[in-house]
Specification:
Blueprint: E1 23-25, H1 30-39, H2 42-49, H3 61-74, H4 82-86, H5 89-95, H6 102-110, H7 115-127, H8 139-156, E2 164-171, E3 174-175, E4 182-183, E5 189-191, E6 194-198, E7 203-208, H9 220-230, E8 237-242, H10 249-256, E9 268-273, H11 278-285, E10 293-297, E11 303-308, E12 326-333, E13 346-353, H12 359-367, H13 373-383, H14 394-417, H15 428-436, E14 440-445, E15 448-453, H16 457-469
Parallel strand pairs: 2-8, 8-9
Antiparallel strand pairs: 1-14, 2-6, 3-5, 4-5, 6-7, 9-13, 10-11, 11-12, 12-13, 14-15
Length: 478
Amino acid sequence: MKTKTPTQAKTPFAIDPKPMTGATSARAGLSAVSRVVRSLGLPGQCAANVPIRKRQRGFNSGHQVESLILLHAAGGDCMDDMELLRQDEGLTKILGYQVPGPGCVGDFIELFHDPARIKHAEAEAQRQQRLAFIPKETALLEGLRNVLQGNVHAIARHHPKWTVATIDQDATIIESHKRTAKMTYEGMPGYQPMLAVWAEADLILADEFRDGNVPAQMSPLDCAKAAYRALPAQVTEFYYRGDSACHESDLLAWLRDVDRADGPKGLIGFAVSARTSVDLATALRAVKEKRWTTYGQDTDGTLRQWAEVDFVPGEKSEHKNTNPLRYIGLRLVKPQGELFGDGCAHHFHAVISNREGSGGDLLNWHREKAGTVEHIHDELKNGLGGGQLPSAKFGANAAWLRIACLAFNCISALRQEWPDETVRTAKAKRLRFAIFNVTGRVSRDRRKLQLRVAASPEWIRSLIKLFALFPLLTQPTG
């Protein structure tokens, strides 16, 4: 009697050397991303704000940006990966056009670079005896910023109850070994872009691309203003959170001014990590033991304690006609007999705020930004292709990152509306597994194109519901 071969001791098929015929795609779920992009009016916004010359049989900026958003969603992280999408016959049928090739995309993003602006900014920095500088954006980059703002407004129209906006601002390091990349404070070459995000909506409001040697504390107000300008009119309640890089006099003065220029009028409740100067450190250590209140405990047993700190800084943001800011001290206390790595039993920090209420609640609220802007940094760099900058040209990299921000927002809008609630907080990696990487075939039936996907009836119903939630003015045609 013949012994049966164990199932996992063999591969029970042979590979047919002939490719599958027909307009098939292993990424048919990207149709959901394309539908969101088009329903939000993003191609039209690109045409209006990022005008480029279109060659015969060429692509306009709407084609280019949609193709790059799909590249990020599919998991590509360099321009060469565009060729895989270009060869996808099913995706071509789904989109109605064949995506541009790597060379075409490279030419497109290089349009956003202006070497004269870089040289001018560098010369001005040298004149002022500074090494770091932030060049003014080109007209096309400013246009792409307008597209990002319009994208936020279009998504917010789906959620009229979004009337509260907490803006979290932070910079991150993107390592890069391009010849023009400058050394960062971590000792590696790269860039240090800044983001401002809308915490309640999980959307990126503004980004500012920066060289690696530009400190995060340099001019954070510009990015903050851009973020508040990007908010839709439905927002009526405003807040702000930042780390110690946002402890900067111009930014704090602007946040405190209820009649602020180039921003919303009225109160912006904020909390910003304080830079620990010698005087502030002395004031923190001078707080009496009985004034420290325990409000939390970390998993390793470290106690988190808060206290009001009597401290008056000598900064120009402090004026005699403004209400003084609160300095809320944070003391981390190791369990008895244990020490921190530096040999200390206590660590001290502080947060500056204009908000009232319990200091412990305020510290917890400020700490929540680690789950918003820091999460988005990680997703941009590792989940999408924002961490692989494609060019040695500053403006091209700035455009690449801003389009990655658009991709994040469109994917966030998709997650929030997809009927399966298990994907509400899913990262891009799981979205590819659950939604994007689904096999489909595009065929013609009675003069109409139809997409048939290899998925469960429930999944197909979810896709149909998503299309209904993101309508288009026109109906599909053959």
